[in-house]
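mind reviewing these tokens:
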Amino acid sequence: MIWSPETATGSRRLPGAQGACVTIAGVTLYDRIQSEMVDARVKRNDVALGTLSLLKSELVRASKEATAAGRIDDEMVVRVARKEVKRREEAIEVYRKAGREDSARREEAEMQVLRTFLPATISEQQIEDEVRQVIEEVKPEGPKGFGQVMKAATARLAGRADGNDIAKVTRRLLGS
């Protein structure tokens, strides 16, 4: 589902429903971000509200790029959320090295909020099975075919596995 100002439908609350909003199948991730921002504001959850606000502003910025043409779809939300999670992981590492545990914990809390918008990742065994299939299809010439295998494996596992994990398994299987 693609979000644009023309497709926004306003409230997701069913008539007569009291209390929490009722989740409707087919809600875009962007709509979910907006809904969770309202919940965070009501619950006075500053970490969630700040993280979701930043994610929303990054999505708006990304939608203004020429390739997006002003549209925010679920794929863009996942891509931007993954980029923000990676930033948090790097910041946590830097904060821990500097002995700033309180800042690292805040980054971890933000990362948990962002991870709710990412699809479930697959296990290393599943990555290995997929990479083995790619190797059989591509038939690389030893470690020199790493780039070919990575290109095909990354396309096949897009959104389900991290590129670093795919590269690690590929190197191990190719013996490079």
